[in-house]
Write a structure and sequence with these properties.
Layout lengths: L1 E2 H7 L5 H9 L3 E3 L2 E2 L5 E2 L5 E3 L2 E2 L8 E6 L27 E2 L8 E7 L2 H8 L7 E8 L4 H9 L2 E2 L2 E2 L4 E7 L3 E8 L6 H8 L4 E9 L2 E2 L8 E3 L2 H8 L2
Parallel strand pairs: 9-15
Antiparallel strand pairs: 1-4, 2-3, 2-5, 5-6, 7-9, 7-17, 8-9, 10-14, 10-15, 11-12, 13-14, 15-16
Helix pairs in contact: 1-2
């Protein structure tokens, strides 16, 4: 016997809070009868949501991976290069949300939840992505403001960004940059637009979800509250 909201959440219907809302809305049935909050499910029960049997639903997985350099962000690669899927062992067909370049590392989300993937990558939702970059030379205050105000790449101006200088000397500048667009190689091209070359790039956050102490090549499953947060971005 298991509580109904946990039973539904374990099968990928949604977070427990979302499942509680579905139950309250009267769209969940157990053996043909409308379920109520607090009910439990026994083995062999026939549970449906909006008249679709829950047993037939695919469990949703949400994974945070610390992508290392030297991996492509695809499910398969025609050139035989290592892909991010080689780093994750989950009994489900996952796919990466967005992309990180071959030589870029950091936070990458993998899931089989197409709705969430679309929400995080659709331009209209303007989901912030934060990177730490090490660039050649010193970044001047004027160049920093240029980046924040938008620079011309691939024929169009980038949206406003946030750029914070973390450390600099005569040879290098380490800075944090937050953007909400997802253009191809955008961060590198932005720095190129002000005459700087990116030597190292790492994505450290999506929204307020941060990579934290996850080591290169390691992954973990997102917590319920983290999934809920991403769904509400």
């Amino acid at each position: 016997m298991v509580r109904l909201n946990k039973y539904l959440a374990d099968r990928g219907v949604g977070s427990r809070r979302e499942c509680d809302r579905l139950i309250a809305d009267g769209v969940v049935k157990i053996n043909g009868k409308t379920a109520t909050t607090g009910m439990s499910v026994n083995e062999g029960d026939h549970v449906t949501v909006n008249n679709k049997r829950v047993a037939d639903m695919q469990k949703k997985y949400y994974v945070m991976l610390h992508k290392p350099k030297g991996y492509v962000t695809t499910v398969k690669d025609d050139l035989g290069r290592k892909t991010v899927m080689d780093l994750v062992t989950v009994d489900a067909r996952l796919y990466p949300v967005g992309r990180l370049d071959y030589d870029t590392e950091g936070l990458l989300i993998l899931t089989n939840d197409g709705e969430l993937a679309n929400r995080l990558t659709h331009p209209r939702n303007e989901v912030n992505k934060t990177y730490v970059a090490r660039i050649s030379g010193m970044l001047s205050e004027q160049e920093r403001k240029q980046l924040e105000n938008g620079v011309l790449i691939d024929g169009s101006k980038t949206a406003p960004a946030r750029v914070k200088i973390l450390k600099k000397d005569q040879h290098h500048t380490r800075c944090e940059i937050t953007i909400h667009e997802g253009r191809n190689r955008q961060v590198k091209k932005m720095f190129e637009a002000v005459g700087k070359e990116v030597e190292f790039l790492k994505r450290v956050a999506v929204g307020d979800l941060r990579l934290g102490g996850l080591k290169r090549g390691e992954y973990r499953f997102l917590k319920d509250n983290e999934v809920e947060y991403l769904k509400n971005l």
